[in-house]
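Internal ticket - ligand job 469, nicotinamide-adenine-dinucleotide:
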Amino acid sequence: MYRMLVDGALIDSEARRPVINPVDETVITQVPDASAEIVDRAVDAAAKAFVAWGSASWSERREVVLAIASAIEAHKDELARLLVKETGRPMAVAQFEVGLATQYLTFYAAQKLEAEVLVDDASRRVELHRRPLGVVAAIVPWNAPLYLAANKIGPALIAGNTIVVKPAPTTPLSTLRLGELISGVVPKGVVNIVAGGNEVGAHLASHPGIAKVAFTGSTQTGRAIMAAAAPTLKRLTLELGGNDPAIVLPDVDPKAVAPALFALSFFNSGQVCAVIKRLYVHASIYDAMCEEIAALARAATVGDGMDPSVQFGPVQNRAQYEKVLRFLEDARANGRIIAGGRLRGGPGYFIPLTVVRDVAEGTLIVDDEPFGPILPIIRYSDIDDVIERANRSPYGLGASVWSSDPDKAAQIARRLECGTVWINQHCALDPLVPFPAHKQSGVGVESGREGLLAYTALQVINVNKAAGQ
Ligand code: NAD
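stdout (C-alpha cells):
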C-alpha cells in the first residue's frame, strides 16, 4: 500500500486514484489522492520544520541529504523495478535514472554556502550571505520521476529550505516509495510528498505558504504556474519543453556517427526534454545518414521494459500517446517515413521508432516537440541558413553540432540560441554542470552551483564600523 509523507507520518487519503501500466493499460495499483486540506497540512508542516532546518548547520543538512542518497542506493533495485512498472521503460534506463538520483543528491550534499566578504576596511564590513527561501514546492513530470525529484530535493535541503514534492499523476510509485524509505531519516516536515492530479500542482503553485516553485514539465503548465505564482511573487525555476536541433556537418562519416545520433534521439523513447528532436544533416551525406539511422530504428525492439530483450518502452501515458499520434499523422502527411510509422495494435501505448525524411520547417513534426519516438531528418546545404533555421523556435533548451573539427563546431555553437550546446554528443547531463534554459524552454537554471543558488535569497549585512564608537 502506498502512502504519502506528511509531517513525518505516512498517511493515506480518503480519495484514491489508479496508476495505469502503460504496457497493457491495466491498473497496477491505487494510490492516495491528496485533498486540498492534505496539501495545506503538508505546506504547514514544511513551514514549521523550516524554523529549525533553516538554521541547522551545513553538516546537519549534509548528513540528511546523504542519508536520502543512501536510502536510494540501498533500495536501488526495488526503485528501478518500480520505475519500470510505472513507465514501461527497460531496466537499464531505470537503473540509469536511479543512479542519477543518488549522484545529484551526493553532489548537492557537498555544496557549502559560505558568506562572502565584499569589503572589510577601517570604516565598514560588508558581507554577502545566502539565505534559504522557506518552503519549496517541487512539481515533477512523468518522464524521469525519481531523478527530477532528487534534483530538487538536494539543492532545496542543503540550502536550508524544506520541501513539498508532488510527483506526476501517472508516475507516483517510485516517489511515494522514496517517501517511505526516508520517513525515518529526514526530520519531521522537512520533506513532504503528496500525490494527486494537476489540481494538487495548481494548489501548490498558488499557495501563500510556498516561497518557491521548482517545476519541470511542459511549457504550457510552466506558464500557468508563473501566473499562479505572481500574486505572491514566488521564486521560480521552470525547466520546460525543448525542440533540440542537432546540426551534422558534411565532414562526418555517417556510418560512424549514426549510432550516437540514433541513441541520443530515441533515448527513453524520445521522452526526454533534451534529446535530439530535429536532426539537420548536410545534403552531401543526407541520404546515407537517413539510411543508417532508419536501419538502426528498424532493428530496435520496442516492448515491455520488464522483458530483458526490449530496448525501448512505450509512451508513458494515454494523453501523451494521443499527442504523439498527432505528430505521426503530421509526419505521414508532410514527409516520407522510412522506419516505423505503423502501429502494432493491441493494448499499451506503443509507437514504433519512427524516422521521417524530406520534411521541413512549417510542419508540426519539425516545429514542435513530439516527446515521443519520432525523429525528423531535415536537409540543409548552407551553414548560415541552417543556424537560422535551428534558431527559429520558441524553445531554447539544448542543441548539438557534429563535426570532425571540434573548433569549427564550437564557432557554430556560439551562434545557437539555447542553454547548452553539445559538440559530438547530446544530452550529456552532469550534476556539476548547470542546465540552463533560454527562451520558452524555461526560467532560471537547474543543476550545478548555479542551480543551488536558485534555492537561496541574497542577503547583505553592511556594518558601519565607525558608528557608536
Ligand atoms: P505537465 O506540464 O503536464 O505536468 C508536469 C507536472 O505538472 C505534473 O506533476 C502535473 O500534475 C503538474 N501540473 C499540471 N498542471 C498544473 C498546473 N496548472 N499547475 C501546477 N502543476 C500542474 O508535463 P508532462 O506532460 O508531465 O511532461 C512533459 C513535458 O515536460 C514535455 O514538454 C517536456 O519537454 C517537459 N520536460 C522538461 C524537462 C526540462 O528539464 N526542461 C524535463 C522533463 C520534461
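Auto-summary: Residues 139-143, 166, 168-169, 198, 201-202, 205, 216-218, 221, 224-225, 239-242, 273, 369, 371, 397, 442 surround nicotinamide-adenine-dinucleotide (CB under 6 Å). The radius of gyration is 23 Å.
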